[in-house]
Amino acid sequence: MDNQGFEMYGESIQKSSNGTEWPRKEERNSKWSLMKVFLVCLLACVITTVIGVLVLSLVYVNHVPFIRETVIKDDGTSSPKPEEKDVDIKFQFLNHVTNSKVHKYPGGEIQWARYRNDVNEYQSDEEMVFGRSINNHRSKMTFGTLRIKSKGLRAPHWHFNANEHGYLAQGSAWIGVIGADNSVVTTYNVTAGQVIFFPRNTVHWVKNVGSEDCLFLLFFTTHEELQTLDVDDAFFSTPEDIAARALRPQGGVNFIRTFKKQEEDQAINLPPNLNELVKNATYVQSPDNLVWQFFYDLKGSAEYPFPGGVFQWARYRINGTGLNEKEKIFSESLNKHENTLTLATLRIFSNGLGQPHFHFNANEMGYVISGCGQVGVILSGVTSNFNIGIGDVIFFPVGTQHYIKSVCDEDLLLILAYSTGNQLETLRMDDYFHGTADHILAQLFFKHQDEFKKFPRPAKK
Ligand SMILES: *[C@@H]1O[C@H](CO)[C@@H](O)[C@H](O)[C@H]1NC(C)=O
Ligand SMILES: *[C@@H]1O[C@H](CO)[C@@H](O)[C@H](O)[C@H]1NC(C)=O
Ligand SMILES: *[C@@H]1O[C@H](CO)[C@@H](O)[C@H](O)[C@H]1NC(C)=O
């Protein structure tokens, strides 16, 4: 408001002083004229402010949380307040997850690209547009980055409403998964380039056993709020006598009472006196038939090249087609659970193109690990082309045509997730162009039928 008022004031002054027609004899009156101009401007200022306040309060009544957010955001910068309708439509498909709120814990941090029930939890309108987009499209997707410091521990926990698929971009970790029934415990080491899978409601933990940070890129199969319970929170929420009877420790309930809940949230835990607490850590690896249910060596898997780059897949294959024995265990494990994801790394060579295509049976979400690119999305009625770089999350609702082009000197590397546990169904632009009869194309594009012979047949994939 202040800015707007100031601009009007300045403009009026300029107009008056440009009014060169003022007669000379009135020069001695110019002070008074200036005063008048000033008063008029002041009045204009006041009126503008009043109107502005009125408009704002009207909007405020209708969009309380929205206004609250933009006001907060304006604290830091002088940029004008965006209206929701002013947010670039690209943010339906793009989220700068690196700009999102950093949830810090003693042992690391988490950032999210997700839907929120409470709009006040969005940091920006762009984030809100993205959150609403993945929810409105029933995407079955939530994305998060999980950074764990050396020796840090993502506390044992489970998710009520989602399977979790993760890709370790950096570092090495020791993981535990506790299944239902006989509570079989599976533990295994994971290194960069490998994939983990935690079915809904399995208790799992992640311990950084390397010297550098671990960076996990995580996809959860829900477009609602992710619901999670940490084991320590479950413990401290259980009455002492109930816990004592369930766990039957020596010393009974008195021993249970010696446990003290930490003030800080221990979601990612790293006690300062860890070396005193832990004397004998061993990192056991369970047998293959257990481990490969929850683990896949994506980096070491078969490469599927295409003209602009190469895919590698962590997915279900009917009859294990093209998979080795260990990979078949993973494939069958995915197939046993509902709503699993297909994961892939996509490397697009410098200047390479992942040509326009769409999927019949899956939403797609991706994260840029390295490089930079240009993306185009066409949804019915919405078209958007935009640039992507490291740390960006992209989202393509099922059926939307999209392409990805690598635009810098290095390869563009993405981790992609598709919301199908079945085989991904895809149609590419050259396929549907070639598949359409040439006289239909001629009629459609007002072009002679012969001209369509200039399009070469698509290479068989
Ligand atoms: C360390 O732990 C392992 C497995 O829990 C156990 O077999 C071993 O005896 C322990 N060693 C010491 C010195 O406590
Ligand atoms: C798992 O990693 C830890 C820490 O690097 C190492 O001590 C252990 O030997 C590894 N286990 C296996 C089975 O590779
Ligand atoms: C899978 O195996 C079954 C029985 O062995 C066979 O009938 C079927 O054709 C196979 N499917 C594919 C896609 O290979």
TrEMBL record:
Segments traversing the membrane: 37-61
One CC-aspect GO term: Golgi apparatus
Domain Cupin type-1 residues, every copy: 127-276, 321-453
Region ranges (Disordered): 1-24
SMART domains, A to Z: Cupin_1
Keywords: Membrane, Transmembrane, Transmembrane helix
Signal peptide per UniProt: none
Keyword presence, Transmembrane: yes
PANTHER family assigned to the protein according to its UniProt record, in alphabetical order: CUPIN TYPE-1 DOMAIN-CONTAINING PROTEIN, DYNACTIN-ASSOCIATED PROTEIN
Protein name: Cupin type-1 domain-containing protein
Source species of the chain: Calidris pygmaea (Spoon-billed sandpiper)
